């Protein structure tokens, strides 16, 4: 049975064909909720990391860059995707917004997604240097180098996103889909897995050294604290990797299949796209709830907000 209803169109343009009303409203509503939650979570984490001082300022700036990329996804990419839920065929939405705008949106969507993934890679490299080379970390990871890394993230993402030319023919689309899969997913994933694997190995090595030593001195106690931090970092990273792969792998794999003219059901394509966009919401949640220091910053923001909203509740007794 045909899922769409043809609308009369006397303008000579391709007719706009909306989806079945119920499914369209459900999909659009879900995406709008995702947009709001993503904006709130990322803005909140950005404010928390910039509002309070931290013993890891450089790492926090990488996290802020990650949040900015995810905010762009919520502001630029997701709203157009809401329209995709209503008008399922590309030519239908192109007739509404224009072909040039759709090409720009497609490239911007890839730009924001790639920048988000690369920001995760920068965080992994920063944590790798901090844990495996604690004595030389301050000298290696300077403000200037961190700034260069952030600029490089956006330059790399822009190159990947706007490299595609609007050529006719499927060969260019297929090659570009493979290129995006490698440049925006496989390579960053390799960086994340390698760095976090080495972090985990260092943590295990330190733990074994602690087991061999039976005497507990002040030096041993300090090393034990460092081992504990390393193990927690390894656990955090495992959650990050799992979330990253779970959200992005299905969508990028289906993109390659689509480039090879493989028939994909619309609902399956929508689900994988939602999963990729959901990563923009999960990133701040993962770092806020798993990372102890970032979690403490978020709690500080909540406490300050509550005090400003209800000053009488937090008023000292002597002032009453």
TrEMBL record:
<dbReference type="GO" id="GO:0007268">
    <property type="term" value="P:chemical synaptic transmission"/>
</dbReference>
<comment type="similarity">
    <text>Belongs to the G-protein coupled receptor 1 family.</text>
</comment>
<keyword id="KW-0807">Transducer</keyword>
<feature type="domain" description="G-protein coupled receptors family 1 profile">
    <location>
        <begin position="41"/>
        <end position="287"/>
    </location>
</feature>
<keyword id="KW-0675">Receptor</keyword>
<feature type="transmembrane region" description="Helical">
    <location>
        <begin position="146"/>
        <end position="163"/>
    </location>
</feature>
<keyword id="KW-1133">Transmembrane helix</keyword>
<dbReference type="InterPro" id="IPR017452">
    <property type="entry name" value="GPCR_Rhodpsn_7TM"/>
</dbReference>
<keyword id="KW-1003">Cell membrane</keyword>
<feature type="transmembrane region" description="Helical">
    <location>
        <begin position="62"/>
        <end position="84"/>
    </location>
</feature>
<keyword id="KW-0472">Membrane</keyword>
<dbReference type="GO" id="GO:0030425">
    <property type="term" value="C:dendrite"/>
</dbReference>
<keyword id="KW-0812">Transmembrane</keyword>
<dbReference type="GO" id="GO:0007187">
    <property type="term" value="P:G protein-coupled receptor signaling pathway, coupled to cyclic nucleotide second messenger"/>
</dbReference>
<dbReference type="InterPro" id="IPR000276">
    <property type="entry name" value="GPCR_Rhodpsn"/>
</dbReference>
<feature type="transmembrane region" description="Helical">
    <location>
        <begin position="274"/>
        <end position="290"/>
    </location>
</feature>
<dbReference type="GO" id="GO:0030594">
    <property type="term" value="F:neurotransmitter receptor activity"/>
</dbReference>
<protein>
    <recommendedName>
        <fullName>G-protein coupled receptors family 1 profile domain-containing protein</fullName>
    </recommendedName>
</protein>
<feature type="transmembrane region" description="Helical">
    <location>
        <begin position="24"/>
        <end position="50"/>
    </location>
</feature>
<dbReference type="GO" id="GO:0005886">
    <property type="term" value="C:plasma membrane"/>
</dbReference>
<feature type="transmembrane region" description="Helical">
    <location>
        <begin position="104"/>
        <end position="125"/>
    </location>
</feature>
<dbReference type="GO" id="GO:0004993">
    <property type="term" value="F:G protein-coupled serotonin receptor activity"/>
</dbReference>
<feature type="transmembrane region" description="Helical">
    <location>
        <begin position="175"/>
        <end position="203"/>
    </location>
</feature>
<dbReference type="Pfam" id="PF00001">
    <property type="entry name" value="7tm_1"/>
</dbReference>
<dbReference type="GO" id="GO:0045202">
    <property type="term" value="C:synapse"/>
</dbReference>
<feature type="transmembrane region" description="Helical">
    <location>
        <begin position="233"/>
        <end position="254"/>
    </location>
</feature>
<keyword id="KW-0297">G-protein coupled receptor</keyword>
């Amino acid at each position: 049975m045909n899922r769409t209803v043809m609308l009369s169109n006397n303008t000579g343009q391709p007719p706009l064909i909306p989806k079945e009303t119920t499914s369209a409203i459900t999909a659009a509503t879900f995406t709008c909720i995702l947009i709001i939650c993503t904006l709130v979570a990322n803005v909140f984490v950005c404010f928390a990391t910039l509002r309070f001082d931290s013993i890891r300022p450089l790492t926090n700036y990488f996290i802020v860059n990650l949040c900015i990329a995810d905010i762009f996804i919520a502001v630029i990419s997701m709203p157009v995707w809401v329209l995709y839920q209503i008008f399922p065929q590309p030519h239908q939405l192109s007739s509404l917004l224009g072909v040039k705008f759709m090409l720009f949106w497609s490239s911007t969507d890839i730009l924001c997604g790639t920048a988000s993934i690369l920001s995760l890679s920068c965080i992994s490299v920063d944590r790798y240097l901090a844990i495996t080379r604690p004595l030389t970390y301050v000298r290696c990871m300077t403000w200037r180098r961190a700034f260069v890394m952030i600029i490089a993230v956006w330059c790399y993402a822009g190159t990947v996103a706007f490299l595609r030319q609007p050529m006719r023919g499927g060969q260019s689309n297929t090659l570009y889909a493979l290129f995006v899969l490698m440049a925006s997913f496989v390579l960053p994933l390799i960086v994340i897995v390698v760095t976090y694997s080495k972090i985990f190995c260092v943590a295990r090595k330190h733990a074994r050294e602690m087991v061999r030593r039976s005497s507990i001195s002040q030096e041993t106690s300090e090393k034990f604290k460092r081992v504990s931090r390393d193990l927690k970092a390894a656990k955090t990273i495992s959650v990050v990797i799992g979330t990253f792969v779970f959200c992005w792998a299905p969508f990028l794999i289906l993109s390659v299949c689509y480039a090879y003219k493989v028939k994909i059901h619309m609902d399956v394509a929508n689900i994988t796209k939602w999963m990729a966009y959901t990563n923009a919401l999960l990133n701040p949640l993962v770092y806020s709830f798993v990372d102890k220091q970032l979690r403490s910053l978020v709690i500080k923001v909540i406490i300050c907000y509550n005090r400003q909203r209800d000053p009488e509740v937090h008023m000292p007794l002597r002032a009453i």
